[in-house]
Amino acid sequence: MRRALMALALASASPVLAEAPTLASPIDCDLTETCFILQYMDHDPGSGASDFRCSPLSYDTHSGTDFALPSDAMMQAGVDVLASAPGTVVGIRDGMPDTGLTADTAAQIAGRECGNGVRLDHGGGWTTQYCHLKQGTIAVQPGDIIETGAILGQVGQSGRAEFPHVHLSLEKDGQDVDPYDPDGDITCGAPGTDTLWATAPPYRPGGLITLGFADHVPEYTAIKAGTADHSDLTKTAPALVIWSYNFGIRAGDILQLDLTGPDGPVIARDITLDRTQALNFRAIGKKRRTAEWPAGTYTGTATLIRAEQQIEKKQITLTLR
Questions:
Q1: Domain with CATH 2.60.40.10 in the chain
Q2: C-beta separation of 305 from 244 below 8 A
Q3: Average model confidence (pLDDT) across the chain
Q4: Where is the signal peptide (predicted)?
């Protein structure tokens, strides 16, 4: 997403700050466990995409950082978007539905790709912009002077958004700046340590968003909605399935899925992922061949392997009675 995607109404001049703002996370969510950063600013000058670590967690011309939620259900429950630095509200937009980008909505979104959003002026030519907020949740007005951590609205999926997230962009005199590498001097394998973050949100090169159980391979729409997990299964379930919802996948990654029960292994598989994808899911399962599944605790494990190194591992349990 390039800068100035939304034409927000500007207010009067804001206080002048001589230095670059120090940023805090713009999302009220744990980025190490629950939420995650899916895409960073693109530093590739060509048609490809490369983040500040020369990894493909970006897309061509992406101008900010995308802080994502694991499901539509969490979006509906409400997660606050927070001001990353003190400043003055100089523009807002609200009223766009959280339908995201589809073939049916593309025409209505054109020219308003940021969706519902807020723009803050931090003085000295520095601004931040917060995009894709949930309809009806904008909590500030142009002219408001706010502090770091002030609630701006809630995470949504308005505008050009294919998943619920808040897109944070930072500009200096109208030019995009990456808070992870503000000087723009990218050295692959040795990212700069000087950032504009008070505490830099953790960099995860990919990982596991959520795991779940089901009695059939769920639809991808149910995975994204947050309705695919069925931890209320009984011993007469027609099948036992474990699924894993993943982000930042690269071609060649291996996803190990394993399901064990009270009597030992149920099913296990190493899945080689053949495409680089921002989001995907995989599942394995086994049909019931007896009158009932053995009663007891079942453990599902997902492990993401890249170049023979473990990226992340998660486990969930299910008790059948």
A1: 207-320
A2: no
A3: 92
A4: 1-18
For domain 1-204, the CATH superfamily is: Glucose Permease (Domain IIA) (2.70.70.10)
Predicted local distance difference test score (pLDDT) of residue 283: 98
Closest CA to 43 of 165, 171, 187: 187
195 torsion bin: left (phi>0), alpha (psi -120 to 50), beta (else): beta
CATH code of the region 207-320: 2.60.40.10
In tens, the pLDDT along 190-206 reads 677 789 999 999 999 99
pLDDT digits 0-9 by tens, 145-194: 999 999 999 999 999 999 999 999 999 999 999 999 998 887 776 677 78
pTM of the model: 0.92
Residues carrying CATH 2.70.70.10, the chain = 1-204
CA 104/CA 216 separation, integer angstroms: 30
